[in-house]
Model the fold of this input.
Amino acid sequence: MAKDWDKEYARKLATPAEAAARVKSGDRIAYGFTHLAPYDVDDAIADRIEAGELEGLEFEMALSMRQRPYAVFERSASAEQARFTSLHMLGIDRTIQADGRGWFTPMLFNETPSYWRPGNDFDICAVQVCPMDENGDFNLGPSPTDIKAILRNSRCIIFEVNKNMPVALGPDNSWHIDDVDLVVEGSNTPLAESGSRPVGETERKVASHIVDLIEEGSTLQLGIGTLPDVIGEMLAASDKGDFSIHTELLGDPYMKMIEAGKVTNSKKRDTGKSVYAVAIGNRSLYEYIDNNPACMAAPVDYVNNYTTISSIDRFISVNGCLNVDLYGQVCSESIGFTQLSGTGGQLDFVLGAYASKGGKSFLCVNSTRTLKDGRVISNIRPLLDRGQIVSTPRAAVHYLVTEYGAVNLKGLTTWRRAEKLISIAHPDFREELIKEAEKMGIWTRTSKSEY
Done:
């Protein structure tokens, strides 16, 4: 006779306060990626912090998609009470960092599950999940990333059930009631949506250079931000099609292509399925994912694995960056000493796409940006500014794109790289960049000599 999982569920059912009572001072607590972070349990832990019952807590989270900030941050007063670490920074994470209580964890996204092991484990994992099914399984929702590795390396597991969490089908995206310590029936907060962003003419020009180089039947990985939205819109309206999706982040740009009939998922591994490790978008995206066998949620050590990506022909990777210098070094995550985002899977896909037969990797940046004081500066710099992080090393960069064109840097000397990069810089800064390249010794009279 099949076991009655409902009885096991009832035995482990707890209030948020009862779940928070499991927390001890000095505990390390995982809240997981994007939509996984709890609300009701978070509030209850914050109650205990505010009451002076807890101190020395460390919270691990990443790419925080929230309807409201973390209660444990807003209702704690110092790093002695609660400190925070993040694998990828969004607005909430940056606020915590600016307060002096948050630290960034550098990573290669494809390796993340391997980071969680004895010695780098958690006292408690508290995350939102889908309601339990008839087999006693909880689907883990649209951010499988590294959550199974976190669960395997946590001493206490608390699930907060959210009926608004879409069931994200995948080969390794559920967890059984037997292996859960407590279940909290949450207040069912809707998933945060990404919202629309204004699209400028510059972004459209950058996108057009990329779209021109994407072939029929390519497999796509588009990053996050305005540019992927424009590329998705352009591909949906183009005469190209038969695209496949294998992406770290599944977002609204893909919905435009899917609705236009441009996606077949016929030219890659996992035929017939749009593969992703994280989903962030609007409500229509979450409704599309829910129980949809055409979507495959998978851990990041599969999705972002170099071998997986490189095995797919005509793989196209598109990601944004903040600055590039004349050596070809790319910064995608910081301005000065301020961590703005994270490394994410950029390097994973840059390397994998180039190794793919017919594959292309694009790193994109507007040629200039305007500072708060009104000054316009070039995003192509002689050298990256002090404190800026090299997200993608120069040897890995394939195509670099601005509104002035797309240049292929693979296999070029330092002089040729500088020449190509200056050719797509804003015209107002090209002469200045040439002078700086001369000072750096990578633009000399003999550089262009034929032998």
About this structure: The chain is about 25% helix and 25% strand. The CA atoms of residues 160 and 203 lie 40 Å apart. The chain has a mean pLDDT of 94.
